[in-house]
Amino acid sequence: MTAAIDWDRATNEATSLLREYVRIDTSNPPGNEELAVRFLGDILRNEGIDFETADSAPGRSNLIARIGGQGAGVCLLNHTDVVPVERQFWEGDPFSGELRDGVVWGRGTLDMKGMGIIELMTFLLLKRQGIQLRKPVVFLAAADEEAGSDYGVTWIADNRPEWLEAEVVINEGSYGLAPTSPKERPVFQVAPSEKVPLWLKLTVRGRAGHGSVPHGDNCAEHLVQALGRVATWQRQTRITPLMRAHAEGMAAANRMPPATDSEMTKAAARFPGFRARLMNTVSLTTIHTGIKVNVIPAEATATLDCRLLPDVDADAFMADLKAVINDDRVVIDVINRFEGTESSMDTEFVSVVRQVVAELVEGAMVVPELTSGFTDSRIYRVRGIPAYGFVPCLVNPGELSGVHGHNERISVENLRLGMQILYEVVRRLCEA
Predict the structure, then answer these.
(1) Residue-level pLDDT at 1
(2) What's the per-residue H, E or C state across 351-368?
(3) How far apart are CA 346 and CA 342, in angstroms?
(4) 101 and 27: one domain?
(5) How far, in Å, CA of 162 to CA of 5, rounded?
(6) pLDDT value of residue 3
(7) Segment holding 228, helix H or strand E
């Protein structure tokens, strides 16, 4: 009979590993994910677990490990890079891994080194417990997710396609929500889909000249006028079936009013995060022009981060955007474009998640969600492999603001909860 897991000990180990992991600066750019792969590889080697690594470029590395044989199984997917920091806005060193009042602070604690450690500990505990697996469990640590995955899962798909073999993928993309009032129930969100990124570059060229003599062909002025029209473009909200199910679940958890069209429209007007899940969004992210204050520039560029609902045709959206800009001088180039897909919520994985959550967290609900950002899951979904965002921790709004923000952190209690839930989910999915 398998001995019970000492969760206190496992939590202490996870906490120690995460603190060490956070201290490895894998800010992307430039990434330097080979440092993370070295760290993870040392842990696996000490456990007697074989692994492979693959370098996609100098300093950019990916790692895979497998227990339980060959074939398609459960893939525990995580990325090793993190977004850069603005140190002046942090309360402490963002790469210190400081443990304070039961909380680990630092870049990546939520996105997504914390989940990476939860996955790693799940992987190690299955091995240590001697669980007989009827299907394999794969631990895959990929580079470059924060910059589009060209050196990570996209590169793996082109160069190591066998690494992507899976029956189901568990990844980042959706967090559990802690109650913020006595009436609210804990919610664990599962994301079977996500908004689709379409990154565009706008370019206008004109005639350079002396700033003292306006000549009416100023490319910067053309670009600003075009961007003004984009900024005032009124796009309609649309309630997809997935977001309808999300709203119904949140209402059942006492976190939203009843999921009527009018109430969802009101919520969209009040909450940008909810609104982003009901419409195609456009964010102006960079503007570049000019070389000197008294020189009319010859070129002006801007980038737009567009996020489309999964069922939207990108070509039709770009045609609408071009009509809104209404200026043939503005050249639109695609920087990055992906396809939208959605995994089913009617699967063994989701069923097991519901069972485990109900058993381990009193009163908790499982609610579907559409991820507003993009993750590496998209690369699996277009290949017909079900992939889900599922971070089994209960975070509050203050903690969520640290994702790509300042003072990112995760509680030790959440590391413990995440391990307990994920371990049990994977065990039930894979045990013989």
Answers:
(1) 55
(2) HHHHHHHHHHCCCCEEEE
(3) 12
(4) yes
(5) 33
(6) 82
(7) helix 219-231
Give the residue ranges of the chain where pLDDT is below 70: 1
Question: 175 pairs with which residues across the strands?
Answer: 391
- Is-above-0.90 flag for pTM? yes
pLDDT at res. 164: 98
pLDDT of residue 2: 73
pLDDT of residue 69: 80
Whether the upstream peptide bond of residue 112 has omega within 30° of 0, thus cis, is: yes
Quick count: other Cβ atoms within 10 Å of Cβ 220?
A: 18
CB 189 within 8 A of CB 255: no
- CATH number, domain of 11, equals 3.40.630.10
Classify strands 187-194 and 209-210 as parallel, antiparallel or unpaired: unpaired
Query: CA-CA distance, 425 to 350, in Å (whole number)?
Result: 9
Q: How far is CA 353 from CA 203, 389, 424, in A?
A: 47, 12, 9
- The per-residue pLDDT for 70 is 81
| Domain interval for residue 210 | 196-337
Residues 336, 285: contact at Cβ < 8 Å?
no
Whether residue 94 is contained in a domain is answered as yes
Tokens of 363: 């009163």
Q: Is the peptide bond before 257 cis (omega within 30 degrees of 0)?
A: no
Q: What is the CA radius of gyration of the chain?
A: 23
Gap between the Cα atoms of 267 and 251, Å rounded: 12
Question: Hey, which residues does 302 pair with through a beta bridge?
Answer: 202, 287
Show which of 337, 353, 380 is a domain's final residue. Answer: 337
Q: How is residue 292 annotated by DSSP?
A: S
Tokens of 219: 């490319």
Residue found under tokens 């443990």:
99
23 with 155, same domain?
Answer: yes
DSSP E strands: which ranges in 60-158? Answer: 60-67, 74-79, 99-100, 103-105, 137-142
Supply the CATH number for residue 327's domain: 3.30.70.360
Do 231 and 284 touch, CB atoms closer than 8 A?
yes
- What distance in Å separates the CA atoms of residue 84 and residue 398, rounded to the nearest whole number? 20
Mind giving me the DSSP string for 242-262? HHHHHHHHHHHTTSSS---HH
Identify the DSSP state of 27. Answer: B
Compute, in degrees rounded to 10, the torsion defined by CA atoms 89, 90, 93, 96.
Answer: -140
Cis status of the peptide bond prior to 58, with omega within 30 of 0: no
* Sequence-distant (≥ 6) Cβ neighbours of residue 224 within 8 angstroms: none
Count structural domains, the chain.
2
pLDDT in tens, 281-297: 999 999 999 999 999 99
Alpha-carbon gap, residue 154 to 376, rounded angstroms: 8
